[in-house]
Amino acid sequence: MVRKTAVGYPELMEEVRQYIHKEENIKLIEDAYAFAHEKHEGQFRKSGEPYVVHVIQVGYILAQLRTGPQTIAAGLLHDVIEDCSVSDDDFKQRFGEEVYRLVEAVTKIGNLKFKDEKEYLASNHRKIFIAMAQDVRVILIKLSDRLHNMRTLQYMKEEKQKKIASETLEVYAPIAHRLGISEIKNELEDLCFQYLNPEKYYEIAHLVEKRKTERDEQVHQMIDEISALLDEHHIAYRIFGRSKHLYSIYKKMVTKKKRFEEILDLLAIRIITSDETACYEILGYIHAKYRPIPGRFKDYIAMPKVNMYQSLHTTIVAEEGNIFEVQIRTEKMDEIAEQGIAAHWRYKENRNGGKEVPQKEIEEQLHWLRDFSLMSDEVSDDAMEYMNLLQKDIFEANVYVMSPKGRVIALPNGATPIDFAYRIHTEIGHKMIGATVNGGIVPLNTPLKTGDVVSIRTSNQSNGPSEDWLKIVKSSHARNKIRAFFAKQEVERKKEGIRKGEELLGEELKKRGLDVSFMEEKRINAITNSMSFASYDDIMYAIGTKIVSVSSVIERLTKHKQFNQLDNQEMIEMFNRQEGRKKTISRSGISVAGIGSMKITLAACCSPVPGDEIIGYITKGQGVKVHRKDCPNIINETKRLIEVEWDDDLESRNYEVKLLIKSNDRNYLLSDIVTIVSQCKAGLNHVDSKVNEDGVTATTKMTVVVNDAQHLRTLIANLSKVNSVKSVERVVL
């Protein structure tokens, strides 16, 4: 993609006319420009340029990608609905339903209000990506829009520059990469790098420029040598050197912890030839003459990436000791490598009206887009959950495995056959009973590697997934499906419990000769608080599952004094008046005298563990909540408190506790913290660690699992000894 700094309307149309010739299509683009020019009249960008300059640039980028007339028109009009008070009906009447749908899909959510910026971005992106799953042209327009905005970012304030660059690097560049549009992806990354880390950007740019003359000479010499070799064997080819993008150099320096001088493939050569056979032929001749570096050969022709990228990659050592990365591909492969999905979407006019390539055909070739579309349809409305799934299962997917029929599935690192099964189909996952990898039976927790051929064994007699699978799977998609299965089961169990409760209550009322009107929902709701239940369904479920007796419910129905009418002192006395009653021990291991079937739970805010001093708080509708005595949420309470205690014969069990660790940031800090947790034989359910805004200190939030207070104190004492840790505190929500 040739980048021109100043493109006007004539240059746009010149580019368009290179591949679009039908007058009705040209007229659509001309009308779109005229309308955009009229509606944006008087609007200016931060640079001082008329706003219409931006839409021309977007249209030009789309024309360079060889998109169709509807797509270019939508690119020219992408801001008019939102920014220019154009009615939907007027727009549709002038440009048609198809162009309207494209424009509407890329329109920003400007007027919606969210709790915070993060939620806003997630919701905005969710709309864009779902639209993308329905029509990939949407993201081509959005990427073109973002590319020009990044090219003119110097006119924004520094804070705004960093915000836009960060968003682009996190979302738009990965999307461009996933779609295989390396031209846009590389430019976006370098522009983001320039604004997010200017010091490092210019340092690497200086180093590259400093060595440019020397490197160019080395590349030209190698090109001459390889050209002579291929001419000798009469192979058709194009050969040229390619420069490494600054951000890709920086990433390698960071991830591989190497100095600039140590990056192997700064010297790179690309060879374009006629067909696949010639690719392998050229590879053979090069390996025969130059020593290849072990482990650096990649065959993406036989095993294409999920974005359809194909090429042979090898790294060789020249006679002078210089190291070169060589890429070998066909003309078609090179086109797809540079323009990705856009190469398959190229507009071609024909006698039948020049329809653009149907979305369905794209999806057949780009399996991940089909999977993405499926996940977009199934995911909940929670924007943050959606973005998490997108980030984890799409952007970070870099393990490529195959079905027995050759379908390539992209999965996150560490993914298992269970993740694979759910990606194929939800029912395959639910009915899964085993798996084979490369022909051999493997455990379900086996991590998959790129190139593995995976086959799933299913059975209609399967009871569904195990809860243990939630600890094994790595993809958000599989985890959500398994959770949904158990949630559905729970709903069905509750429905059956409610039905059984209604049946038992009806039978008992009939047996006692009482009117069935006692079963009316309003009568049941009148006693919910007094029995520490929230609703009619809760009481019926409790009857059906024998949590409460039918007799106690009928007794309360016939002669009840509403619990919510009692004052706080009466409530306390009700619980404590019967000294002779046996203590009730809850599932939490708490014993309380005289409360019958009252629900007892540990308070989530302070997470008490055996050994902590505790107190009970009587809630309305949720039973007794057990807090630590020093919990700030009840420390000022004088009413509704009852004495509770840990049971003497408490069985061994696990308790969750949230910890907050403050420290100075350093390498391997989190690794050292996790190691201590393991050495102390504590569980780790969640960890979130981030560097603070000062860039020096770090905050780590952890949810650990301990046996009791002594176990927790030992863990905290050992965590406090970790190098650079300043404090370890129990969190109270």
UniProtKB/TrEMBL annotation:
Pathway: Purine metabolism; ppGpp biosynthesis; ppGpp from GTP: step 1/2. InterPro entries: ACT-like_dom_sf, ACT_dom, Beta-grasp_dom_sf, HD/PDEase_dom, NT_sf, RelA/Spo_fam, RelA/SpoT_AH_RIS, RelA_SpoT. It comes from the Bacteria. It catalyses: GTP + ATP = guanosine 3'-diphosphate 5'-triphosphate + AMP. Gene3D superfamilies: 3.10.20.30, 3.30.70.260, Beta Polymerase, domain 2 (3.30.460.10), Hypothetical protein af1432 (1.10.3210.10). SMART domains: HDc, RelA_SpoT. Transmembrane segments: none annotated. Pfam families: ACT_4, HD_4, RelA_AH_RIS, RelA_SpoT, TGS. Residues 383-458 form the TGS domain. Its EC number is 2.7.6.5. Belongs to the relA/spoT family. In eubacteria ppGpp (guanosine 3'-diphosphate 5'-diphosphate) is a mediator of the stringent response that coordinates a variety of cellular activities in response to changes in nutritional abundance. This is GTP diphosphokinase. It comes from Massilicoli timonensis.
